[in-house]
Amino acid sequence: MSLLRALPVVLLLLVASPASAADHVIAALGDSLTAGLGVSPEEAYPAVLEARLRREGFEYRVINAGVSGDTSAGGLRRIDWVLKLRPDVVIVALGANDGLRGQAPDVLRDNLTRIIERARAAGVRVLLAGMRLPPNYGDDYARAFAGVYPAVARATGVPLAPFLLDGVAGDVRLNQPDGIHPTVEGQRVIAERLWPYLKPLLTK
After folding, report:
1. Of 89, 109, 111, 180, which has the highest C-beta tally within 10 A?
2. At what angle do helices 184-198 and 45-55 cross, to 10 degrees?
3. Which residues are catalytic?
4. How many domains does the chain have?
């Protein structure tokens, strides 16, 4: 069974998993950058965020809903399953694979908007994480791609973490040999940079 086909089963198991009744839920909806390709599950940024939440007295579980290779269209197909987890907050960190495949920015914008609208209709707070492309994709395309995220944030009224890989992209010390996926330390930097945007969405 493919990972995408198995995901609904995994999510249903997570819904049924035991947890403190006081626990709130954050779901991180993303691709391999969220899934933590090349690092262990407890080293990916969703797990790092959960550890910080616990240290700072927030009773939250952070569920990693990242799927390697996923696009914004895949995230749109999966959002209803993610909402079955009854999250208080969803981090939407999608688009890298859209860009790598040369997907039209208008399609990315539409998919992200629809994901956010579905989450907010369910009473879920959303944090949108932006993405950027390297310059070899062409200045015009890279600029249009990067501009999707602030445009979606403005249109939907959700907070924006401008760049998921802020402080990580381009740093060989924080990336695996493929130059794309963060190392363990890179995942920690992602969690640290997301924290100021996530914290205002939390309740104790």
Report:
1. 111
2. 50
3. 32, 178, 181
4. 1
Bridge partners of 60, per DSSP, are: 24
pLDDT digits (tens, 9 = 90+) for 99-152: 999 999 999 999 999 999 999 999 999 999 999 998 888 999 999 999 999 999
Query: Residue 151: which domain range?
Result: 3-201
For the whole model, what pTM was predicted? 0.90
DSSP state of 57: T
Three-state DSSP class for 163? Answer: coil
Which helix (H) or strand (E) element contains residue 60? Answer: strand 60-66
* 76: CATH: 3.40.50.1110
Burial class (CB in 10 A: 0-12, 13-18, 19+), 126: buried
Residue labelled with tokens 């579980």: 61
| CA angle, 84 then 89 then 94, to 5° | 85
What residue type is assigned to position 114 of the chain? R
